Amino acid sequence: MGNASALAGLLLLFGAVSASPAGAQATVDGAYAKLSPGNAKVARALFEAQLTTAMPMTKTGGATTAAAPKALTIDQIAAMKQNGQSWGKVFQTMKSQGLLAEKNLGQVVSRYQQQQERSSSGAVTTAATRTTK
Q: Distance between CA 44 and CA 119 in Å, rounded?
């Protein structure tokens, strides 16, 4: 239920955000700076959620380490949105490239929001203070 409410909140938050005009082509350079504050928040959440560490990969004859997929820049993520893709489609594209571990966009944005709230309150989460549900 938590994922559903996070997604519902996300949809409510961005429901009034207008899409790019049909046929408009955004350039990658400076695309992030052109986003509305709400869209910039989603782009930043996706950018920061990217997996950037090497992942172990088993190969016949022994274990090897696969290089992490090349992370997208924040301008590349913003340009995808400005080129007419929904945030859901941007998420799916990044997930299919192995850049994201979350199951849905709501989880990405929710985690980003929680990190922002913790950093603004000065709270530090440690393994000893973290609780699980």
A: 15
Q: Helix 87-96 crosses helix 74-82 at what angle (to 10 degrees)?
A: 130
pTM for the full model?
0.63
Q: Is 3 left (phi over 0), alpha (psi -120 to 50) or beta?
A: alpha
Q: Taking Cα atoms as reference points, which of 70, 89, 75, 74 lies closest to residue 19?
A: 89
Instruction: Give the contacts of 77 (CB within 8 A, at least 6 positions apart).
Output: 32, 43, 46, 47, 90, 94
d(CA 90, CA 88): 5
Q: What distance in Å separates the CA atoms of residue 129 and residue 46, rounded to the nearest whole number?
A: 26
Every domain of the chain and the residues it spans: 31-51+71-120
CA distance 77 to 70: 13
pLDDT in tens, 77-116: 999 999 999 999 999 999 999 999 999 999 999 999 999 9
